[in-house]
Amino acid sequence: MPTLPSPDADPAVLQVWGGSSLQGHVKISGAKNSALVLITAALLCSEDCRLRNVPSLVDVTRIGQILVSLGVKLKQQDDILNINASTISKSKAPYELVSQLRASFFAIGPLLARLGSACVPLPGGCTIGARPVALHVRGLQLMGADVQIEHGMVNAHVRGNRGRLQGAKIYLDYPSVGATETLMMAATLAQGETIIENAAQEPEVVDLANFCNSMGAKIRGAGTNTIVISGVSRLHSTDYSIIPDRVEAATFLVAGAITYSEISMSPVVPEHLTAAIAKLQDIGVQVVTEGSDCLRVIPSHNLVATDIETLPYPGFPTDMQAQFMALLALSEGNSLVSETVFENRLRHVPELNRMGADIRVKNNHAIIRGVPLLTGAPVVATDLRASAALVLAGLAAQGKTTIQGLHHLDRGYENLEAKFLGLGAKLERVPQSVAIANDAFSPINSDALISS
Ligand code: UD1
């Protein structure tokens, strides 16, 4: 796993020289969002769990540190993570770690199910939105937990002296991915049956259900809007491989489209990319399936505008919105992108405009007038997927783009630079001081930016 970044007086920037044609094949890593929740779900099991295809990411290191702080034993070899949670010595997750990674709030479900109590700091908002956890908390209450939120901590105890959550019927007001996953994990060891209605249907929810079922859980319906979990008293050892990262794959599909390059990628689950592939086709780019797990993007020089609305799965994913906006910035005509999932996820717009894009924002809508050319510029990554969008825009732009805020990129893309270099792209990570010395690059003040 990568080591965690320390506060850096001379942070790295990524220099991207645009205009090169790319070619070749990319290996897609394991899905970040699956890895984070599956590692946490291993807390449910008191025997050895082996996870394969674990991506090497800063966020994965952070979730691993949280488990270690709870007394869990972890052993990593390449992309295999061995987890032994036979002993959980604490039910309290440390604030310093949770505050750096929202996904660590996932721990509340398994801790409550395993130990009957959990104390997890409220994760707080992030750069893309407020991201409340009210649905997670309400569901746990319906399953018999007393939940107090005081001094920024969520304290939860199973009511009564049996120490075991009770199955319940839970309707989610919104198909929240995190709430569905938290409640699914909690229900796995509960007494009786839990029904989650209006559940999230994302592939990562299905991956979690498959992982838990491989340990002896009884979960049906994951991937539909109703999930039924029959609680079991304990889970057993497993050896499980995480699904490929559909957001990373979509990022490389857009990379092919935006640089007019033919590239292929595997492994992927093509059905997980249906919405992205359909939008690429609307834009004029073909994506062909080769075998069961490989995609090839066939570029077009006639990119045309289209509208995109982000929605819960199987709708168009919010995690792919910024990357597609970079492509639409270069597509002829007017496009409308509506971000309906997060309230503050258009912060890449001013950065793309700095590169010559013509995009206006009105509320949660971005109106994009396609331009024939982007030009390299100094830009700031404002969140994880926005940073990928800036790399894509930089690969297409004329001249050099210098991207600040790489800590966002490192959270969620494994070896992105190496993968692009392998395709023939020209890009280099250098200390900011070197970029300044080389070409009078002036960093943008990004003090106000915080991690999502
Ligand atoms: C997960 C993903 C993230 C992705 C998002 C939506 C992980 C680690 N992260 O985040 O990459 O962008 O799904 O696909 O898997 N909401 C409420 N109340 C709640 C919970 C959520 O109103 O109690 C709202 C949120 O504010 C947001 C929307 O629901 O507007 C979607 O959030 P949610 O599906 O919970 O996203 P996450 O699980 O945080």
TrEMBL record:
<feature type="binding site">
    <location>
        <position position="341"/>
    </location>
    <ligand>
        <name>UDP-N-acetyl-alpha-D-glucosamine</name>
    </ligand>
</feature>
<feature type="modified residue" description="2-(S-cysteinyl)pyruvic acid O-phosphothioketal">
    <location>
        <position position="126"/>
    </location>
</feature>
<dbReference type="GO" id="GO:0008760">
    <property type="term" value="F:UDP-N-acetylglucosamine 1-carboxyvinyltransferase activity"/>
</dbReference>
<dbReference type="GO" id="GO:0051301">
    <property type="term" value="P:cell division"/>
</dbReference>
<comment type="function">
    <text>Cell wall formation. Adds enolpyruvyl to UDP-N-acetylglucosamine.</text>
</comment>
<keyword id="KW-0133">Cell shape</keyword>
<dbReference type="GO" id="GO:0008360">
    <property type="term" value="P:regulation of cell shape"/>
</dbReference>
<feature type="binding site">
    <location>
        <position position="319"/>
    </location>
    <ligand>
        <name>UDP-N-acetyl-alpha-D-glucosamine</name>
    </ligand>
</feature>
<dbReference type="InterPro" id="IPR005750">
    <property type="entry name" value="UDP_GlcNAc_COvinyl_MurA"/>
</dbReference>
<keyword id="KW-0963">Cytoplasm</keyword>
<comment type="pathway">
    <text>Cell wall biogenesis; peptidoglycan biosynthesis.</text>
</comment>
<keyword id="KW-0131">Cell cycle</keyword>
<protein>
    <recommendedName>
        <fullName>UDP-N-acetylglucosamine 1-carboxyvinyltransferase</fullName>
        <ecNumber>2.5.1.7</ecNumber>
    </recommendedName>
</protein>
<keyword id="KW-0670">Pyruvate</keyword>
<keyword id="KW-0961">Cell wall biogenesis/degradation</keyword>
<feature type="domain" description="Enolpyruvate transferase">
    <location>
        <begin position="18"/>
        <end position="419"/>
    </location>
</feature>
<feature type="active site" description="Proton donor">
    <location>
        <position position="126"/>
    </location>
</feature>
<dbReference type="InterPro" id="IPR013792">
    <property type="entry name" value="RNA3'P_cycl/enolpyr_Trfase_a/b"/>
</dbReference>
<dbReference type="InterPro" id="IPR001986">
    <property type="entry name" value="Enolpyruvate_Tfrase_dom"/>
</dbReference>
<keyword id="KW-0132">Cell division</keyword>
<feature type="binding site">
    <location>
        <begin position="32"/>
        <end position="33"/>
    </location>
    <ligand>
        <name>phosphoenolpyruvate</name>
    </ligand>
</feature>
<comment type="similarity">
    <text>Belongs to the EPSP synthase family. MurA subfamily.</text>
</comment>
<dbReference type="GO" id="GO:0005737">
    <property type="term" value="C:cytoplasm"/>
</dbReference>
<dbReference type="GO" id="GO:0009252">
    <property type="term" value="P:peptidoglycan biosynthetic process"/>
</dbReference>
<dbReference type="GO" id="GO:0071555">
    <property type="term" value="P:cell wall organization"/>
</dbReference>
<keyword id="KW-0808">Transferase</keyword>
<dbReference type="Pfam" id="PF00275">
    <property type="entry name" value="EPSP_synthase"/>
</dbReference>
<dbReference type="InterPro" id="IPR036968">
    <property type="entry name" value="Enolpyruvate_Tfrase_sf"/>
</dbReference>
<keyword id="KW-0573">Peptidoglycan synthesis</keyword>
<dbReference type="GO" id="GO:0019277">
    <property type="term" value="P:UDP-N-acetylgalactosamine biosynthetic process"/>
</dbReference>
<dbReference type="InterPro" id="IPR050068">
    <property type="entry name" value="MurA_subfamily"/>
</dbReference>
<feature type="binding site">
    <location>
        <position position="102"/>
    </location>
    <ligand>
        <name>UDP-N-acetyl-alpha-D-glucosamine</name>
    </ligand>
</feature>
